[in-house]
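A common beginner's mistake is to predict each chain separately and then try to dock the pieces by hand. The better habit, illustrated here, is to supply every component at once so that their relative placement is modeled jointly.
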Amino acid sequence: MAKKIDAKTINAPRHNPAAKLDEIMTGTTVFNIPFPKDLNALKTMSPIIIKHPYYVEYIHSYGQDSPFFAGLANKKLLGTRCGKCSYTYATPRLHCTKCGKETKWVELPQEGRVHTFTTCYFGSEEFLKDTPFHLVLVEFDGVDTLFLTRLIGVEGPEDIKIGMKIRAKFRRNSQLKPTDVYFVPAG
Amino acid sequence: MRPVYMVSGGVSKFEKARPDATFQKMVKEAFDYTMGDVPRLKPSMIDGSVGSYFSDHFTRQLMAGIMATDYLGLCPKPNKRVEGGGATGGLCFQAGWESVASGRMDVCLAFGFETMSHVQTWKGNEFIALASDVNFDYPVGGFYSGYYAMMVNRHIHEFGTTVEQMAMVSVKNHMNAYNNPYAQKRKRLTIQDVRNSAMVAYPLTLLDICVMSDGAAACILASEDMAFKLTDRPVKITGVGTGTDMMRMADRPHGEVILAPNEKKSDYRNLKYPGVHSFRAGRSAGLQAYKMAGIKDPIKEIDFVELHDAYTSSEIQTYEDLALCKYGDGGKFVEEGHPFMPQIDYGLKLKTKGTIPVNPSGGLIACGHPVGATGLMQAVFAFWQIQGTIKKHYGSAELQLKKANRGLIHSHAGTGTYVTVSIMERGW
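With all components supplied together, the output reads:
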């Protein structure tokens, strides 16, 4: 939506000496560069900087953690519980870090509380398009560890409070990523 | 184990970008400075080296360690790469210490570097975030500033730490760096400047967070015999400690505080530890190093600290982990002025200045953080501080502490995943 501009706004100086264009990774293809006759002059030559693309498709297995992602695709939030010491993990692991024994899969409650939070206004390149987004660590009753997720349905950090109740929601079309589950205020 | 001394150090000036040099050349600059400071040391007397860089993604070159080693002319002597996220440099320093302490080498070079300018900043953040669980954490919005923001929001909730207290750390470290020619950002700031800069991840602003850098650092470590042959003022490494914690901060336990010698159980009746507000690895590393160095009351027995202030919040959290103050008192600790330099004017009203100066060099926030070099940079700055040679190396004595007989260096990875603490003391 266009900003409303009145005469007063137009007359006010709006100079920003710190204004700067973002660097972009596009450029011109160069096939030749100038070269001096005197080889001693090479020590003062500017560095040559080239673009170097790097793209890989991995065959990535979730291994023993795969059932967690199958659970998300079926609207279930799964954690694990140690068969020996009963320590319960919100983010699953097949072996208990406390006693070393194998854990079993358990269904977690779909309602929890905000243990801590942030709102990211910048991010890694992959997530810049999502900014601002909210990250929370969720705590669940009867579960010993936390779960990292995104919170939606709030505007800014002032809308998020530690201890507030939040509820899990699931994407209908699973991406087989931990973001197949996200949380909203419990209402 | 036999005693180990540091005899020399050097740092390439940390910059946003060094397109004029490859990593080998930057390491060579740091190495040549190091060698120039101990003329009695000839390259033939170096028995081997350990090298460190954090990210294969930034380097886009595997086995870069050997390329630096061959550039320095140290083949065919021993070398290996040491890596552990943000603590890479600190781990490398300790690997050098191990090489000499074990008797394997009499003189060992520890060098480190990073070339972070080779990608755009937001891609760099992506590379760094790959040092979080790529199955469960990274895809949710992998961003280290976001992780640290969550940790400090819990610290604020538990202890009442304030964003102004965090901003004071930024003012302090930028101001210290004002007199350090090696630093990347030398600025006089106010608390308002820090709070008014761009919000990155609530409540952390751009000036609460360190920047990415290109740079290298080098240290020479030696046995007692060799140390005193090479220099009249060797610095002894009297304590080393290395702590670890779960990669996913969601997995951190909520148990009992690991007590420092100057603390008691009743100090922490209702505190669940470490949770996500404290770094158990930092506490563990600190206590190991204190025990080895015979330190019972760190604030009274250590003269200064160079710690891993990737975030202003993590500097406050680290005061507590290192038992410079009790858990929960970190914010008050900086507000009262304890970690400020006694001789520097910060434009702040401070009750007690200089109890234990923290990051006299300016730390990561102001000096920069070329990851593999950072922990070694701290060792070099601490070494000069203890030697009393700040004027020689910085060109001004502004940052020289009057009493700098014993210093602590602290290097930190992940969300507190690997932490190293080393104690350095006047050895002559």
